[in-house]
Design a protein that fits this description.
Elements (H helix, E strand, L loop, with lengths): L1 H22 L1 E19 L2 E4 L8 E12 L7 E7 L2 E12 L2 E12 L2 E12 L2 E12 L1 E7 L2 E10 L2 E13 L4 E12 L2 E14 L2 E17 L2 E17 L1
Antiparallel strand pairs: 1-2, 1-3, 1-15, 3-4, 4-7, 5-6, 6-9, 7-8, 8-11, 9-10, 11-12, 12-13, 13-14, 14-15
Length: 245
């Protein structure tokens, strides 16, 4: 009888471990994004085009991300992302921007580096999955314009906003293929300001590992950031790889 109890107890323990494995999970991944800039920045009515004036074109950017999912219904799952979006270029501009007068060559450093803390709930989790939650995006960047011949002629606009956004993600698995098609959107619009971060993706799984190919677009339209209006779009294809456990 004692042996039977021990066997049953061991079986319960194994079942509990397996059950926990089914509901605990996460992922780690790294992405390379080839993004192209478009848009403009404005100060006191003076408009600078990112491509024509500042010669900001495209760049390669790396993002790292980690996700943790758990079985506690009242607590959200957590996803953390960080991407460095620092791009420099040399253009030309004659005029006054942000109180500084330029008369020719201008060097630009546009840094839109940010970190995302995403808290979300899975409202559907089968061959079709749907997540809904909150994306808190923290910028740690700047827009700097300077005269290469005179360091005193420098304009610096700090971009360090914290923006809460609605987050929605959906994914459809194609049975027996390891393939899935999905989309993610984080967005907010308030008092004329807006921010959206969206992607579509195709993922191929190989056991725990995966490769993902997609297209991402970030649109920022914010007025009066240190007396500068920012209307910037960054979009392009990306490639990710990682493990999903």
């Amino acid at each position: 009888m004692k042996n039977i109890s021990r066997i049953l107890g061991l079986g319960s323990l194994v079942f509990s471990i397996n059950a926990a494995a089914d509901v605990l999970g996460g992922s780690v991944e790294v992405s390379y994004w080839q993004g192209s800039y478009s848009g403009q920045v404005t100060s006191a009515g003076e408009v600078l085009d990112l491509e024509d004036n500042l010669k900001l074109d495209d760049g390669g950017f790396v993002e790292i991300a980690a996700t943790f999912e758990h079985p506690i219904p009242v607590l959200p799952n957590v996803r953390l992302k960080h991407i460095g979006l620092d791009e420099s270029a040399n253009g030309s501009f004659t005029g006054t921007f942000d109180g500084v007068t330029y008369t020719g060559d201008v060097a630009t450093d546009l840094d839109l580096t940010h970190t995302d803390l995403i808290l979300y709930y899975e409202i559907l989790d089968n061959y079709v999955s749907v997540d809904v939650g909150l994306d808190v995006k923290k910028f740690d960047g700047k827009l700097e314009l300077r005269d290469p011949a005179n360091a005193a002629l420098t304009s610096t606009t700090t971009i360090d906003d914290v923006l809460p956004m609605l987050y929605v993600a959906a994914e459809v698995e194609l049975p027996l293929t390891g393939l899935s098609l999905g989309a993610e959107v984080s967005a907010i619009s308030y008092s004329g300001d807006s921010l959206q971060d969206a992607k579509i993706k195709l993922r191929q799984g190989f056991g725990l590992a995966f490769i993902e190919l997609g297209y991402r677009q970030i649109g920022i339209d914010i007025e009066d950031v240190s007396d500068v209006d920012v209307d910037v779009d960054l979009s392009g294809a990306y490639l990710s790889t990682g493990i999903d456990f």
